[in-house]
Every structure is written in structure tokens, then in C-alpha cells.
Design goal:
By secondary structure, the chain is α/β, with parallel strands linked by helices. It has two domains: 117 residues, Aspartate Aminotransferase, domain 1; 234 residues, 3-Layer(aba) Sandwich (Aspartate Aminotransferase, domain 2). 41% of the residues lie in helices and 14% in strands. The chain contains 14 helices and 13 strands. The strands form three sheets. A seven-stranded mixed sheet has the order 2-8-7-6-5-3-4, with helices on both faces. α2 packs across α11, α3 packs parallel to α11 and α4 runs parallel beside α5. It is globular and about 55 Å long. 41% of the residues are buried.
Length: 384
């Protein structure tokens, strides 16, 4: 029997449900005239004139070789899309991230889909932190392995699940969680995975560029990188550009090239994008002073926020600072109040976070100023 509801009517009904719960999403163009407390451009490299000049110089150098693929890559890397430049960049990134090998992906989302859809098989088990990123969850849905979530950062709960897991076991966590901003207990997780012979996968999307002597990430900073099965490092946050790598063994690299459908069937990043990644990562390695400045501002933000009893701040020492507001309508109202005062900070609504945990996701940057932080906190406190 043909349904009485058209495809358009079903979509309209679902959107109306979102409007009724004040959780409708809309595209809001970034406003460069506003004070940025929302982007993931932690170090300001996306707006860096230095990086831009270095990319332009690299691009000029590449064009002098007469490369015929200046705009697009021409296909997937297994067809026409590979290049000496891409392989040289991967080698350079492997050295930077202290990995045996890395494989480039078009985004962190694609990389996580590739990892979790292709490696765990039927009979295996995936255990993942309940606050893991949506890209990991989507990759898990595409896998034939069993999967269970464990309570956020709860090692006891994870160990209970490890004891009853079957097949090859994979454990997934984020180095820094994208909505709460807190860190995983990395050393304890690595040790627990070794105890149960589980393969540990660490998403370093929000720690890449910020931790370590040269910004190589938390795993390198804690000298745990060699004990981790796979690390995901994206370039869309602190690096200020686009793309990602999966870092691990040469065996992992070769496996993904052969079995990861999001890699095999995706048009490769064009050479210009690779040049941007190269220059951005080279600059990350030089930004120790910016990293220190960033974390001094994070500390300042938290110290000042404690002066306001109406501000309910989540525990985080990273640039991601969550202020719980409860209720989609309330979170949107206070975000709008900030915008009226030229402060760009976005509300995070359910169902992106659990109902009752709606919040402002405040992002601190190396280019913010203490006076801007003071103004932001004053506006939020008055509106709360």
C-alpha cells in the first residue's frame, strides 16, 4: 500500500517537531566583525597572514613545476588523485606526529567513518565513551561488530565491559571532548587496554596543535603515542585549515588503503589543500608562545567565571568551556543576548547534548583579550 504521507510532508513534520522543541538548526554565517568565542581556530592560524604568505609561496613553487592538476586532484588516490607531493606530505606528518605512518583523509569525520566501518568485524567488540563524537558513532553503525558505550571517563565501567567483550576489542575515546572540553584519563585508558589486549583508538581532533612541545597532541606530550593502535588528528581546529590523518603502523596504513571505503571512493584532496596543511602544521610547530598565551587566557576565563554565582561552569582546562544553561530556549536566548553585544558564542542544544545539559560552548582563543572575556562573562551572568 502506498503511504498517505508524501516525502515532503514527512520532512515538514520532523522540522516542525524541532521548532516546537526550540531545537531547530539554521545556518548562521560567521560575522568577522564580532568577537570570536565560537570557532575552533584556537591559535588563530586560519586568519594568519604568515601562513597565507607561506602557502602562496609554496603554491608558486608548485606551479613552477608545471603540475597539470592545479585545481582538482582528478580522482581518488587509487586512480588519478595520488601524487609525490601527497606521499611526501604524509612522510613529513608521520615524523611530526611521531608515527610509523599516516594516511591523509578529507576530514576527521571521513577518517573516523573509515576506521570504525572497516577494521572491527563481526564477532568483535567496540567500546566507546558515551560522549564520543558523532563521526565515531556513525562509523560504528556501519560496522558489523558489537558495540557498547561506557560511562564518560569511567574506568571501572569500561573494565566491566572489557571483561565480557568477545573477539578483537577496540576502545575509543577523545583526547579532549568537543562539547565538555575535558580530557580523557589517557594513561589509565592505555594501561587498561594493554591489560585486556584491546586496541585503543584516540581522537585528537581538539588536542592536535595545542599539547606537546610542538603541538603534536596529548599522546605525544605524555609519551604514550607508541602504545596506541590509532590516532586521529584533524586540521580543521588548531591548524586552521581542513583534512585529517590517521596515525599508526604501516600495516594500518596499508589496510585502510585497501579496505576503507571512505578513502577508496573519495576524490583526493587537491594539491593546494595539501600545501595549506603542510604550511599550517609547520607553523603549529613554531607556536609555543601562542599556546602559552592561549592557556593563560583559559585560566583567566575560569578564574573570572568563579566570581559569578549564576554561571554554572563545566570542569575543563582546555579552550572549550561549557556553561550549563538548561533548556534549548534559554540557551538560545542567552546566545542571542551575547550577539546583541557583538560577542559570537553559540548555544549547544539537545539533542546534540542530552536534554537538561544545554549550554553555551565558549571557545577561548590566543587572539582573544582579557577585556573581551570580562565583557562576555558579565553579559552571560546578567542574562542567566
Amino acid at each position: 500500500m502506498v503511504s498517505n504521507f508524501s516525502a515532503e510532508q514527512k520532512m515538514a513534520d520532523k522540522l516542525e517537531e524541532r521548532r516546537a522543541s526550540h531545537s531547530i538548526r539554521k545556518l548562521i554565517p560567521a560575522n568577522s566583525s564580532m568577537i570570536d568565542f565560537c570557532s575552533n581556530d584556537y591559535l588563530g592560524l586560519a586568519r594568519s597572514e604568515t601562513v597565507l604568505r607561506e602557502v602562496e609561496a609554496e603554491w608558486k613553487r608548485l606551479k613552477s613545476f608545471g603540475n597539470h592538476q592545479l585545481i582538482g586532484s582528478g580522482g581518488s588516490r587509487l586512480l588519478a588523485g595520488d601524487s609525490d607531493y601527497a606521499q611526501e606530505l604524509e612522510n613529513e606528518l608521520a615524523v611530526f606526529y611521531k608515527s610509523e605512518s599516516v594516511l591523509l583523509f578529507n576530514s576527521g569525520y571521513t577518517a573516523n567513518i573509515a576506521l570504525f566501518s572497516s577494521i572491527p568485524k563481526r564477532g568483535d567488540t567496540i567500546l566507546y565513551d558515551e560522549l564520543i563524537h558523532a563521526s565515531v558513532r556513525d562509523g560504528i553503525r556501519m560496522s558489523t561488530a558489537k558495540s557498547w558505550s561506557f560511562t564518560h571517563n569511567d574506568l571501572s565501567n569500561l573494565e566491566e565491559l572489557l571483561k565480557k567483550s568477545t573477539g578483537t576489542v577496540y576502545v575509543a575515546a577523545e583526547a579532549v571532548y568537543s562539547m565538555d572540553g575535558d580530557e580523557c584519563p589517557l594513561e589509565e585508558l592505555v594501561t587498561l587496554c594493554e591489560k585486556y589486549n584491546a586496541a585503543f583508538i584516540l581522537d585528537e581532533a581538539h588536542s592536535n596543535g595545542l599539547y606537546g612541545e610542538k603541538g603534536e597532541g596529548i599522546a605525544v606530550a605524555k609519551n604514550l603515542h607508541a602504545r596506541i593502535f590509532a590516532r586521529l588528528l584533524t586540521f580543521g581546529k588548531a591548524a586552521g585549515c581542513h583534512g585529517a590523518v590517521v596515525a599508526g603502523s604501516t600495516l594500518l596504513h596499508d589496510y585502510l588503503v585497501n579496505f576503507a571505503r571512505p578513502f577508496i571512493y573519495t576524490t583526493a584532496l587537491p594539491i593546494h589543500d595539501l600545501a595549506v596543511i603542510k604550511m599550517a602544521v609547520q607553523n603549529i610547530g613554531k607556536q609555543d608562545q601562542l599556546r602559552k598565551q592561549l592557556f593563560s587566557f583559559v585560566n583567566y576565563f575560569r578564574e573570572q567565571a568563579e566570581q559569578y554565582s549564576s554561571i554554572n561552569l563545566l570542569a575543563s582546562n582546555s579552550p572549550i568551556q561549557g556553561i550549563l544553561l538548561r533548556g534549548n530556549e534559554n540557551a538560545k536566548r542567552i546566545s542571542a543576548k551575547c550577539a546583541e553585544n557583538n560577542l559570537d558564542v553559540r548555544a549547544i542544544l539537545s539533542p546534540t547534548v542530552a536534554e537538561g545539559e544545554e549550554r553555551l560552548r565558549v571557545v577561548i582563543h590566543a587572539y582573544n583579550h582579557p577585556l573581551e572575556i570580562d565583557e562576555l562573562l558579565r553579559i552571560i551572568a546578567e542574562a542567566s
